[in-house]
């Protein structure tokens, strides 16, 4: 083709019809909705995981009300999974949500056991895992139930980003609990309704 010859028209020009434009707009809106839901899930998981992680760092243990709250949330989500319409994936979610109840039963069975028994150690380790991960996992299950498209829209890199963000909050909260004496005093814990953790910094005494 010489420079003077006109360019050949495209044999298959892309025609944008109102229908295709509407489909493209729905896809963009769906992607935006998935991003917004992902942000809400990350915030919810972070709020749920920071306090148990902090108490584990500051007191070396979880409070009983935290563990029972986790059990209640997981049990409620378990019932919600059971009443889902048939055809929905339920077995894996139901088993995962039963783990806190399993831990609670083992806790009762080993209450009078020797603290040095390996079974007690396994139950304690399971309690730590549940205390940190059970509520975020419950939120994830509920999100997939409420927004079925959530699992379809979120890519695996974004899923890893969600997990990484929550783990980062958990680790940072644990480290803040371990180092609570550097920025909190014993009075800060007392006034908030908590017991004083070991090694907390005493309040300064005003001298006349």
UniProtKB/TrEMBL annotation:
Domain of life per record? Bacteria
Keyword Transmembrane listed: yes
Question: What sections of the protein cross the membrane?
Answer: 33-51, 63-82, 94-110, 122-147, 159-178
Q: Does the keyword Transmembrane apply?
A: yes
Entry keywords, A to Z: Membrane, Transmembrane, Transmembrane helix
What name does UniProt use for this protein? Answer: Uncharacterized protein
């Amino acid at each position: 083709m010489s420079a003077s010859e006109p360019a050949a028209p495209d044999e298959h020009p892309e025609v944008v019809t109102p229908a295709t434009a509407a489909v493209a707009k729905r896809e963009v809106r769906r992607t935006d909705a998935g991003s917004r839901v992902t942000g809400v899930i990350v915030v919810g998981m972070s709020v749920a995981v920071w306090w148990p992680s902090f108490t584990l760092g500051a007191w070396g243990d979880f409070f009983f009300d935290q563990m029972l709250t986790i059990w209640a949330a997981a049990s409620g989500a378990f019932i919600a999974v059971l009443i889902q319409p048939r055809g929905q994936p339920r077995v894996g979610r139901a088993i995962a949500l039963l783990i806190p109840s399993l831990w609670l039963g083992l806790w009762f069975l080993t209450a009078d056991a020797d603290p040095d028994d390996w079974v007690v150690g396994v139950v304690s380790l399971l309690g730590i895992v549940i205390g940190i991960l059970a509520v975020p996992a419950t939120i994830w299950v509920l999100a997939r139930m409420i927004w079925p498209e959530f699992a379809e829209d979120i890519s695996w890199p974004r899923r890893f980003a969600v997990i990484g963000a929550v783990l980062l909050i958990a680790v940072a909260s644990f480290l803040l609990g371990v180092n609570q004496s550097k920025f909190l005093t014993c009075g800060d814990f007392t006034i908030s309704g908590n017991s004083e953790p070991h090694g907390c910094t005493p309040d300064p005494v005003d001298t006349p």
